[in-house]
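Record 1 of the preview.
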Amino acid sequence: MSLSNLKHLATLLPEARRPAFFEAIAAHLSEAGSAAHLSAVLSKLGLETSDAAPSLILSAKILACRLASGAETSEILSELQNDAGVAASMAQSVLQCAEIAVLSRAEEIVQAQRHAAANAAVPYLVDFDWQLQYVLSSSTIVRQRQPLVVLDLISRQAAHEAETSNVLELTDGDLTAMLDACDGASGALEAIAKRKAASPAT
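->
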């Protein structure tokens, strides 16, 4: 699920360090903090060397964006407890840290994300294919005997007929992080659809 990796906070960050973590995430999303600043904070918190850090950061960004967009806290608490398996007391603590960091700059986060979306010249996906490879040796991969998912994304730029193939090699961890991101995007779309359906017709 989109917030499932927040469970790693229990082992990666003591409670006293979580406010600084969410503050850095919120600043980055609102464009008040650069990528370099976020990286420096994560390094100071000891997160850059953890294999679970990328998925944790992704889930934290998803949580921040949902709070900034006015998501129901009861739904977030339920997801943290039921889907991510986070204890009730920790779920409440995580949500409180995130709210303190996000809500004071919610408008800036929403505007920054809208601006980024409006100015992104993003190709659209036409088709995709995947293969599973078992790498015995490689000049670029240190570890041998490593399974990789080879994902071929076929895209097309708006107003152009030519298609482009982008091939990605994903480890198990990379694939998990990507699927978490897709879950987050799907959840955001569903939330928007529900909000529109609940809004009275004008």
